[in-house]
């Protein structure tokens, strides 16, 4: 007993995927081939099949020449081969070869007739879609909002011999048609082997597409392999760098422990460097505090103390200005202010303590 909704076996899924891929390739190849055919149209000839299995090709004088199309042993005359070579051939087959079946579908199925008819072939005929060539008449809309059409099908083995013969003669393309019952016009057959029909170079285009896809797959595989190789090399290089860094860290740690007192002295110097005030920053703080009419002639730093000497028009106000700043405290004169003849201000000498880092003072 088969369970409802059971998952199909893996081979069936693979067959469906390959079949869908083949149909997609045929569709793309058909579009490309149609574009190429529009750019370089071929002169067309029509070969019709009579009820006796013979084929006819209208001659230049309007008459028809009968000949078989059953393979190289029964090849037609050189004149027929010369007229077919390089041409677009319409091969009109005898309707007696085909099985005719009516089919009704909902009106909304019109855009999907190709897939629907292909799926219905094994129900309408004794053959599967892979074993048959088939076509259908133009759908007719019925009053009940349904489409009615006629499906024509025949085994592929009956159609391939004349196709093979035409291809041997060098036909540029072959379109196989059959006259529908009731005068609905010729029906173009589907399901032909592209290598046999070669419709507008379809076989060559299909091979080219497959070659392009295969080349793309090979290039993608090579790129992936190169990426894996390059990634492995980078990982090894990164591990080597990490190992070197770890070795240097261990060496530095061991060297610091071996230095003993020398390492302590080095740390003391670094501490003193951090605690001392940079000279440039102290000068910048003085330039912000002292007014523009003050000229510094000498200055000296000793630890956190600074001494400044110079000339200013308002020397007594300098101590107050330095005290008001956040950069200096405990400002005081270390010598009395004096005025020399001919000078524009008083000479001063002030000492102050550097209170905070000068970059923090405003």
From TrEMBL:
InterPro entries on file: Extracell_DNA_Util/SecSys_Comp, PilN
Protein name in the entry: PilN domain-containing protein
């Amino acid at each position: 007993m088969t369970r409802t909704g059971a998952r199909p076996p893996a081979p069936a899924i693979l067959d469906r995927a390959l079949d869908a891929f083949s149909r997609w390739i045929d569709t793309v190849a058909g579009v490309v081939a149609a574009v190429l055919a529009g750019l370089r149209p071929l002169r067309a000839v029509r070969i019709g099949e009579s009820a006796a299995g013979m084929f006819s090709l209208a001659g230049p004088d309007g008459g028809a020449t009968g000949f078989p199309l059953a393979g190289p042993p029964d090849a037609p005359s050189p004149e027929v081969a010369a007229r077919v070579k390089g041409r677009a051939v319409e091969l009109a087959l005898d309707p007696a070869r085909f099985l005719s079946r009516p089919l009704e579908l909902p009106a909304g199925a019109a855009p999907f007739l190709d897939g629907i008819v292909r799926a219905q072939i094994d129900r309408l005929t004794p053959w599967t879609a892979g074993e048959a060539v088939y076509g259908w008449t133009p759908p007719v809309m019925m009053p009940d909002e349904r489409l009615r059409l006629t499906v024509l099908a025949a085994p592929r083995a009956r159609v391939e011999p004349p196709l093979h013969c035409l291809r041997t003669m060098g036909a540029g393309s072959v379109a196989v048609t059959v006259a529908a019952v009731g005068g609905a016009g010729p029906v173009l057959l589907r399901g032909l082997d592209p290598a046999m029909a070669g419709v507008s170079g379809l076989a060559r285009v299909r091979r080219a597409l497959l070659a392009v896809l295969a080349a793309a797959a090979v290039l993608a595989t090579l790129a992936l392999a190169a990426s894996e190789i390059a990634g492995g090399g980078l990982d090894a290089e990164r591990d080597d760098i990490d190992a070197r860094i770890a070795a240097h860290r261990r060496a530095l740690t061991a060297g610091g422990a071996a230095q003993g007192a020398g390492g302590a002295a080095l740390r003391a110097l670094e501490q003193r460097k951090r605690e001392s005030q940079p000279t440039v920053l102290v000068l910048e703080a003085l330039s912000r505090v002292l007014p523009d009419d003050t000229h510094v002639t000498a200055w000296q730093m000793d630890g956190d103390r600074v001494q400044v000497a110079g000339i200013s028009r308002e020397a007594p106000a300098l101590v107050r200005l330095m005290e008001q700043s956040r950069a200096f405290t405990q400002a005081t004169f270390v010598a009395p202010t004096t005025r020399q003849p001919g000078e524009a201000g008083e000479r001063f000498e002030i000492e102050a303590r550097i209170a905070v880092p000068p970059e923090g003072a405003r």
